[in-house]
Design a protein that fits this description.
single chain; alpha+beta; Protein Transport Mog1p, Chain A; 7-stranded antiparallel beta sheet; 3 helices; 11 strands
Length: about 170
């Protein structure tokens, strides 16, 4: 009996490891991406008043501590709004109105952007909740009529440590 339980546990652990590195399709789209290792965990999905959905993943690979000594959990946030009537610039502006940020860099070609077009930012903001400075990489694009915001963020003083990880994930968006 113990042998069967151990085999089942091993099978479950292997399945978890395999799904962590598997290709993920963003719900409501034909867009895929790959989390580059098992250090990322799906947290939850929640719906928004505008009809969009947000999918949250957190990085738990190793403990990140900011300059204030607080533990930091970098995150991946995917906002999806089916049947969005505007273009990517309107989407970026609509989302900016919900959470203003400073644009450090803006780009229209490169990792995380489909050939059909999109807009990307390296940005920063100060959280009104905890007064911490955050930095992120974010892309806006459309898959047919579905608008997508793909955002990887962490505190500003841990961003350099996570930037390669973030860019690696952005490079897998298709």
């Amino acid at each position: 009996m113990k042998k069967i339980a151990k085999l089942l546990m091993l099978g479950a652990m292997l399945a978890m490891a395999a799904t962590a590195a598997a290709q993920v399709t963003i719900p409501g789209t034909h867009v895929t991406f790959r989390l580059n290792n098992e250090d990322w965990r799906y947290l939850r999905t929640f719906g928004l008043d505008d009809g969009g959905d947000v999918y949250l993943y957190y990085y738990v690979g190793h403990v990140l501590v900011d300059m204030e000594g607080d533990t930091v959990l970098p995150c991946l946030r995917i906002y999806v709004n089916e049947n969005y009537g505007g273009d990517v610039y309107e989407l970026a502006y609509d989302r900016y109105l919900l959470q203003p940020f400073q644009s450090v860099e803006e780009y229209t070609h490169g990792p995380g952007l489909p050939k059909s077009g999109g807009i990307g930012y390296m940005g920063a903001y100060t959280s009104p909740v905890n007064q911490k400075d955050y930095q992120f990489l974010m892309t806006y694009f459309k898959d047919r009529n579905t608008a997508v915001e793909f955002r990887l963020e962490t505190t500003k003083d841990t961003f350099e440590e996570m930037e390669f990880e973030f860019r690696d994930i952005l490079g897998t968006l298709k």
